[in-house]
Amino acid sequence: MKLLITGGAGFIGSEFVRQAVKKGFDTVVIDKLTYAGDLERLKEVEDKIKFYKADITNKEFIEFIFKKEKPDIVVHWAAESHVDRSILDPTPFIETNIKGTQILLDVARDTGIQKFINIATDEVYGELETEEGQFYEDTPLNPNSPYSVSKASADMLGRAYYRTYGVPVITVRPSNNYGYWQYPEKLIPVVILKALNNEPIPVYGRGENIREWLFVSDCADAVFEIIQKGKIGEIYNVGSGEERKNIDVVKSILNILKKPESLITFVKDRPGHDFRYSLNTDKIEKEIGWKAKIKFEEGIEKTVKWYLENISWVERKLKYLKDYWEKVYR
Ligand code: NAD
Fold it and tell me: What is the CA(268)–ligand 1 centre distance, in A?
Protein backbone atom coordinates (compact mmCIF):
# COMPACT_ATOMS: atom_id res chain seq x y z
CA MET A 1 0.00 0.00 0.00
CA LYS A 2 1.59 3.28 -1.12
CA LEU A 3 0.84 6.54 0.72
CA LEU A 4 1.49 9.94 -0.83
CA ILE A 5 1.69 12.47 1.99
CA THR A 6 1.64 16.21 1.27
CA GLY A 7 3.10 18.60 3.86
CA GLY A 8 5.06 15.71 5.36
CA ALA A 9 7.91 17.98 6.52
CA GLY A 10 5.50 20.02 8.65
CA PHE A 11 4.52 19.62 12.30
CA ILE A 12 1.65 17.11 12.08
CA GLY A 13 2.54 15.75 8.63
CA SER A 14 5.99 14.64 9.88
CA GLU A 15 4.45 12.80 12.85
CA PHE A 16 2.18 11.06 10.35
CA VAL A 17 5.15 10.17 8.11
CA ARG A 18 7.14 8.76 11.07
CA GLN A 19 4.15 6.63 12.07
CA ALA A 20 3.57 5.53 8.44
CA VAL A 21 7.15 4.25 8.19
CA LYS A 22 6.83 2.40 11.52
CA LYS A 23 3.63 0.78 10.24
CA GLY A 24 5.47 -0.41 7.11
CA PHE A 25 3.72 1.74 4.47
CA ASP A 26 5.53 2.57 1.25
CA THR A 27 5.79 6.33 1.86
CA VAL A 28 6.19 9.21 -0.60
CA VAL A 29 6.36 12.76 0.78
CA ILE A 30 5.70 16.00 -1.09
CA ASP A 31 6.62 19.29 0.57
CA LYS A 32 7.53 22.75 -0.68
CA LEU A 33 9.68 23.35 2.43
CA THR A 34 8.29 26.78 3.23
CA TYR A 35 9.50 28.52 6.42
CA ALA A 36 7.26 25.98 8.26
CA GLY A 37 8.68 22.85 6.61
CA ASP A 38 11.88 21.20 7.84
CA LEU A 39 13.46 17.91 6.79
CA GLU A 40 15.07 17.60 10.21
CA ARG A 41 11.68 16.39 11.41
CA LEU A 42 12.08 13.41 9.06
CA LYS A 43 15.73 12.60 9.80
CA GLU A 44 14.99 9.35 11.64
CA VAL A 45 13.11 7.98 8.60
CA GLU A 46 14.94 9.72 5.74
CA ASP A 47 16.33 6.54 4.21
CA LYS A 48 12.91 4.85 4.33
CA ILE A 49 10.85 7.44 2.42
CA LYS A 50 10.87 9.01 -1.00
CA PHE A 51 10.88 12.81 -0.81
CA TYR A 52 9.94 15.37 -3.48
CA LYS A 53 10.51 19.06 -2.86
CA ALA A 54 7.40 20.17 -4.70
CA ASP A 55 4.80 22.91 -4.57
CA ILE A 56 1.24 21.55 -4.72
CA THR A 57 0.27 24.54 -6.89
CA ASN A 58 2.66 23.29 -9.63
CA LYS A 59 0.26 21.08 -11.58
CA GLU A 60 2.80 19.70 -14.06
CA PHE A 61 5.14 18.51 -11.32
CA ILE A 62 2.30 17.08 -9.23
CA GLU A 63 1.03 15.17 -12.27
CA PHE A 64 4.53 13.86 -12.91
CA ILE A 65 4.83 12.63 -9.31
CA PHE A 66 1.40 10.91 -9.33
CA LYS A 67 2.12 9.18 -12.66
CA LYS A 68 5.55 8.02 -11.50
CA GLU A 69 4.60 6.95 -7.98
CA LYS A 70 1.05 5.65 -8.56
CA PRO A 71 -0.05 6.16 -4.92
CA ASP A 72 -3.00 4.18 -3.50
CA ILE A 73 -3.86 6.78 -0.86
CA VAL A 74 -3.27 10.54 -0.67
CA VAL A 75 -3.10 12.17 2.76
CA HIS A 76 -3.21 15.91 2.23
CA TRP A 77 -1.67 17.89 5.13
CA ALA A 78 0.13 20.62 3.13
CA ALA A 79 -1.16 24.08 3.95
CA GLU A 80 -0.31 27.53 5.08
CA SER A 81 -1.40 26.90 8.64
CA HIS A 82 -1.04 29.97 10.84
CA VAL A 83 -4.04 32.26 11.45
CA ASP A 84 -1.92 35.30 12.39
CA ARG A 85 0.07 35.08 9.16
CA SER A 86 -3.18 34.84 7.19
CA ILE A 87 -4.25 38.13 8.77
CA LEU A 88 -0.97 39.79 7.71
CA ASP A 89 -1.28 38.42 4.15
CA PRO A 90 -4.05 36.08 2.93
CA THR A 91 -2.49 35.54 -0.54
CA PRO A 92 -0.38 32.39 0.09
CA PHE A 93 -3.34 30.90 1.98
CA ILE A 94 -5.61 31.26 -1.02
CA GLU A 95 -2.88 29.92 -3.34
CA THR A 96 -1.77 26.87 -1.38
CA ASN A 97 -4.86 25.94 0.57
CA ILE A 98 -7.46 26.47 -2.15
CA LYS A 99 -5.66 26.30 -5.50
CA GLY A 100 -3.17 23.68 -4.28
CA THR A 101 -5.99 21.46 -3.00
CA GLN A 102 -7.88 21.83 -6.28
CA ILE A 103 -4.78 20.76 -8.23
CA LEU A 104 -4.28 17.69 -6.04
CA LEU A 105 -7.94 16.76 -6.44
CA ASP A 106 -7.77 17.24 -10.23
CA VAL A 107 -4.69 15.08 -10.52
CA ALA A 108 -6.12 12.45 -8.15
CA ARG A 109 -9.30 12.35 -10.25
CA ASP A 110 -7.40 12.05 -13.54
CA THR A 111 -4.86 9.45 -12.42
CA GLY A 112 -7.14 7.41 -10.12
CA ILE A 113 -6.53 6.63 -6.43
CA GLN A 114 -8.29 4.55 -3.73
CA LYS A 115 -8.67 7.27 -1.06
CA PHE A 116 -8.00 10.99 -0.69
CA ILE A 117 -7.83 12.07 2.94
CA ASN A 118 -8.49 15.81 2.98
CA ILE A 119 -7.26 17.36 6.24
CA ALA A 120 -9.45 20.29 7.29
CA THR A 121 -9.74 21.85 10.77
CA ASP A 122 -12.27 22.61 13.52
CA GLU A 123 -11.90 26.27 12.55
CA VAL A 124 -14.08 25.75 9.46
CA TYR A 125 -17.15 25.79 11.73
CA GLY A 126 -16.48 29.34 12.95
CA GLU A 127 -16.75 30.14 16.64
CA LEU A 128 -18.86 29.07 19.59
CA GLU A 129 -19.73 32.26 21.44
CA THR A 130 -20.18 30.67 24.88
CA GLU A 131 -18.83 27.79 26.92
CA GLU A 132 -21.87 25.73 25.88
CA GLY A 133 -22.39 23.67 22.72
CA GLN A 134 -20.29 21.69 20.24
CA PHE A 135 -19.66 21.37 16.52
CA TYR A 136 -21.07 18.28 14.79
CA GLU A 137 -20.00 17.07 11.34
CA ASP A 138 -23.23 18.51 9.88
CA THR A 139 -22.91 21.93 11.57
CA PRO A 140 -22.89 24.57 8.78
CA LEU A 141 -19.45 26.00 8.01
CA ASN A 142 -19.01 29.60 9.13
CA PRO A 143 -15.28 30.42 9.06
CA ASN A 144 -14.00 33.83 10.17
CA SER A 145 -10.29 34.25 9.40
CA PRO A 146 -8.56 34.19 6.00
CA TYR A 147 -6.94 30.93 7.17
CA SER A 148 -10.19 29.23 8.15
CA VAL A 149 -11.95 30.48 5.01
CA SER A 150 -9.18 29.00 2.86
CA LYS A 151 -9.43 25.70 4.77
CA ALA A 152 -13.24 25.66 4.52
CA SER A 153 -12.91 26.20 0.77
CA ALA A 154 -10.50 23.27 0.49
CA ASP A 155 -12.83 21.17 2.66
CA MET A 156 -15.82 21.98 0.44
CA LEU A 157 -13.80 21.42 -2.76
CA GLY A 158 -12.98 17.92 -1.51
CA ARG A 159 -16.63 17.14 -0.92
CA ALA A 160 -17.60 18.67 -4.29
CA TYR A 161 -15.05 16.45 -6.07
CA TYR A 162 -16.57 13.42 -4.33
CA ARG A 163 -20.14 14.37 -5.29
CA THR A 164 -19.33 15.61 -8.79
CA TYR A 165 -16.53 13.37 -10.03
CA GLY A 166 -16.58 10.48 -7.56
CA VAL A 167 -13.08 11.21 -6.21
CA PRO A 168 -12.91 9.01 -3.08
CA VAL A 169 -12.53 11.83 -0.56
CA ILE A 170 -12.77 11.50 3.22
CA THR A 171 -12.76 14.81 5.14
CA VAL A 172 -11.03 15.04 8.54
CA ARG A 173 -11.51 18.00 10.90
CA PRO A 174 -9.02 17.88 13.78
CA SER A 175 -8.90 20.30 16.72
CA ASN A 176 -5.82 22.29 17.86
CA ASN A 177 -2.73 20.09 17.83
CA TYR A 178 0.29 20.37 20.10
CA GLY A 179 3.39 18.29 20.73
CA TYR A 180 6.92 17.70 19.41
CA TRP A 181 8.35 19.68 16.47
CA GLN A 182 5.70 22.42 16.37
CA TYR A 183 7.02 25.60 14.78
CA PRO A 184 7.54 28.28 17.47
CA GLU A 185 4.94 30.69 16.15
CA LYS A 186 2.01 28.76 17.67
CA LEU A 187 0.88 29.35 21.26
CA ILE A 188 2.47 26.45 23.13
CA PRO A 189 6.02 26.60 21.69
CA VAL A 190 5.99 30.43 21.89
CA VAL A 191 5.18 30.24 25.58
CA ILE A 192 7.85 27.60 26.26
CA LEU A 193 10.51 29.56 24.39
CA LYS A 194 9.71 32.93 25.94
CA ALA A 195 9.47 31.44 29.43
CA LEU A 196 12.84 29.70 29.08
CA ASN A 197 14.40 33.03 28.10
CA ASN A 198 12.56 34.86 30.92
CA GLU A 199 10.95 37.11 28.30
CA PRO A 200 7.42 38.56 28.47
CA ILE A 201 4.86 36.00 27.27
CA PRO A 202 2.35 37.59 24.90
CA VAL A 203 -1.25 36.49 25.56
CA TYR A 204 -4.06 37.81 23.37
CA GLY A 205 -6.86 39.78 25.08
CA ARG A 206 -7.30 38.37 28.59
CA GLY A 207 -6.44 34.79 27.55
CA GLU A 208 -10.08 33.71 27.90
CA ASN A 209 -10.33 32.04 24.46
CA ILE A 210 -10.87 28.29 24.61
CA ARG A 211 -9.31 25.62 22.39
CA GLU A 212 -9.55 21.84 22.37
CA TRP A 213 -6.02 20.41 22.61
CA LEU A 214 -5.18 17.24 20.69
CA PHE A 215 -1.76 15.64 21.11
CA VAL A 216 -0.08 15.29 17.71
CA SER A 217 0.43 11.50 17.91
CA ASP A 218 -3.30 11.08 18.65
CA CYS A 219 -4.15 13.15 15.57
CA ALA A 220 -1.94 11.03 13.29
CA ASP A 221 -3.28 7.84 14.89
CA ALA A 222 -6.87 8.94 14.19
CA VAL A 223 -6.07 9.48 10.52
CA PHE A 224 -4.65 5.93 10.21
CA GLU A 225 -7.83 4.57 11.76
CA ILE A 226 -9.92 6.66 9.35
CA ILE A 227 -7.89 5.35 6.39
CA GLN A 228 -8.72 1.79 7.54
CA LYS A 229 -12.31 2.12 8.67
CA GLY A 230 -13.65 5.47 7.41
CA LYS A 231 -16.35 5.65 4.74
CA ILE A 232 -15.70 7.42 1.44
CA GLY A 233 -17.59 10.73 1.20
CA GLU A 234 -17.87 11.09 5.00
CA ILE A 235 -16.57 13.74 7.40
CA TYR A 236 -14.94 12.92 10.75
CA ASN A 237 -14.26 15.32 13.62
CA VAL A 238 -11.07 14.46 15.53
CA GLY A 239 -11.00 16.00 19.00
CA SER A 240 -9.79 15.17 22.48
CA GLY A 241 -12.42 16.73 24.76
CA GLU A 242 -9.48 18.51 26.48
CA GLU A 243 -10.69 22.11 26.42
CA ARG A 244 -8.55 24.76 28.07
CA LYS A 245 -8.54 28.56 28.24
CA ASN A 246 -5.37 29.97 26.68
CA ILE A 247 -4.43 31.56 30.00
CA ASP A 248 -4.65 28.16 31.73
CA VAL A 249 -2.44 26.61 29.05
CA VAL A 250 0.15 29.33 29.70
CA LYS A 251 -0.07 28.81 33.47
CA SER A 252 0.39 25.01 33.09
CA ILE A 253 3.59 25.57 31.12
CA LEU A 254 4.93 28.14 33.61
CA ASN A 255 4.17 25.72 36.40
CA ILE A 256 6.11 22.87 34.72
CA LEU A 257 9.06 25.19 34.03
CA LYS A 258 8.83 26.74 37.52
CA LYS A 259 8.65 30.23 36.04
CA PRO A 260 6.65 33.13 37.53
CA GLU A 261 3.20 34.15 36.23
CA SER A 262 4.50 37.74 36.20
CA LEU A 263 5.99 36.92 32.76
CA ILE A 264 2.44 36.92 31.32
CA THR A 265 1.82 40.09 29.28
CA PHE A 266 -1.60 40.73 27.80
CA VAL A 267 -1.42 42.13 24.26
CA LYS A 268 -4.01 43.58 21.86
CA ASP A 269 -6.40 40.80 20.85
CA ARG A 270 -6.12 39.10 17.46
CA PRO A 271 -8.63 40.73 15.06
CA GLY A 272 -11.75 38.57 14.71
CA HIS A 273 -10.44 36.16 17.37
CA ASP A 274 -12.81 33.16 17.65
CA PHE A 275 -13.86 32.63 21.29
CA ARG A 276 -14.17 28.85 21.43
CA TYR A 277 -14.03 25.69 19.32
CA SER A 278 -15.30 22.34 20.56
CA LEU A 279 -15.81 19.17 18.54
CA ASN A 280 -18.40 16.49 19.11
CA THR A 281 -16.60 13.16 18.47
CA ASP A 282 -19.47 10.65 18.78
CA LYS A 283 -19.18 9.73 15.10
CA ILE A 284 -15.50 8.71 15.12
CA GLU A 285 -15.95 6.94 18.47
CA LYS A 286 -19.00 4.93 17.34
CA GLU A 287 -18.19 4.27 13.67
CA ILE A 288 -14.42 3.89 13.86
CA GLY A 289 -13.84 3.01 17.50
CA TRP A 290 -11.23 5.76 17.94
CA LYS A 291 -10.74 7.95 21.01
CA ALA A 292 -7.85 10.26 21.92
CA LYS A 293 -5.45 8.62 24.40
CA ILE A 294 -3.35 11.50 25.72
CA LYS A 295 -4.79 13.80 28.39
CA PHE A 296 -3.69 17.42 28.33
CA GLU A 297 -1.60 17.23 31.54
CA GLU A 298 0.38 14.28 30.19
CA GLY A 299 0.77 15.80 26.72
CA ILE A 300 1.95 19.18 27.92
CA GLU A 301 4.58 17.56 30.20
CA LYS A 302 5.89 15.52 27.27
CA THR A 303 5.88 18.60 25.03
CA VAL A 304 7.81 20.83 27.45
CA LYS A 305 10.34 18.03 28.01
CA TRP A 306 10.83 17.65 24.25
CA TYR A 307 11.46 21.38 23.79
CA LEU A 308 13.98 21.37 26.63
CA GLU A 309 15.82 18.49 24.97
CA ASN A 310 15.65 20.04 21.49
CA ILE A 311 16.11 23.69 22.29
CA SER A 312 18.84 24.13 19.65
CA TRP A 313 16.31 23.28 16.89
CA VAL A 314 13.90 25.88 18.26
CA GLU A 315 16.61 28.51 18.61
CA ARG A 316 17.62 28.05 14.97
CA LYS A 317 14.08 29.15 14.05
CA LEU A 318 14.38 32.35 16.04
CA LYS A 319 16.06 34.32 13.29
CA TYR A 320 12.91 34.02 11.16
CA LEU A 321 10.66 35.00 14.04
CA LYS A 322 11.85 38.26 15.54
CA ASP A 323 10.41 40.53 12.79
CA TYR A 324 7.23 38.51 12.70
CA TRP A 325 6.66 38.73 16.46
CA GLU A 326 7.04 42.49 16.26
CA LYS A 327 4.20 42.62 13.71
CA VAL A 328 1.72 40.41 15.55
CA TYR A 329 2.20 41.01 19.28
CA ARG A 330 1.61 44.72 19.89
P1 NAD B 1 2.68 23.22 9.30
O2 NAD B 1 2.60 24.66 8.92
O3 NAD B 1 3.58 22.82 10.42
O4 NAD B 1 3.10 22.36 8.04
C5 NAD B 1 2.62 22.61 6.75
C6 NAD B 1 3.57 21.94 5.75
O7 NAD B 1 3.05 22.19 4.43
C8 NAD B 1 4.99 22.52 5.80
O9 NAD B 1 5.95 21.48 5.80
C10 NAD B 1 5.09 23.35 4.51
O11 NAD B 1 6.40 23.40 3.96
C12 NAD B 1 4.13 22.58 3.59
N13 NAD B 1 3.59 23.45 2.51
C14 NAD B 1 3.08 24.70 2.63
N15 NAD B 1 2.73 25.17 1.42
C16 NAD B 1 2.98 24.18 0.52
C17 NAD B 1 2.83 24.06 -0.89
N18 NAD B 1 2.33 25.06 -1.64
N19 NAD B 1 3.20 22.89 -1.48
C20 NAD B 1 3.72 21.86 -0.75
N21 NAD B 1 3.91 21.94 0.59
C22 NAD B 1 3.54 23.08 1.22
O23 NAD B 1 1.18 22.78 9.58
P24 NAD B 1 0.59 21.73 10.62
O25 NAD B 1 0.31 22.44 11.89
O26 NAD B 1 1.41 20.51 10.62
O27 NAD B 1 -0.82 21.43 9.94
C28 NAD B 1 -0.94 20.38 8.96
C29 NAD B 1 -2.34 20.35 8.42
O30 NAD B 1 -3.27 20.13 9.47
C31 NAD B 1 -2.79 21.66 7.75
O32 NAD B 1 -3.61 21.33 6.66
C33 NAD B 1 -3.59 22.36 8.83
O34 NAD B 1 -4.54 23.23 8.27
C35 NAD B 1 -4.24 21.17 9.51
N36 NAD B 1 -4.59 21.37 10.92
C37 NAD B 1 -3.66 21.82 11.80
C38 NAD B 1 -4.00 21.98 13.14
C39 NAD B 1 -2.99 22.45 14.14
O40 NAD B 1 -3.36 22.69 15.29
N41 NAD B 1 -1.72 22.58 13.81
C42 NAD B 1 -5.32 21.70 13.56
C43 NAD B 1 -6.25 21.25 12.62
C44 NAD B 1 -5.87 21.08 11.31
Answer: 26
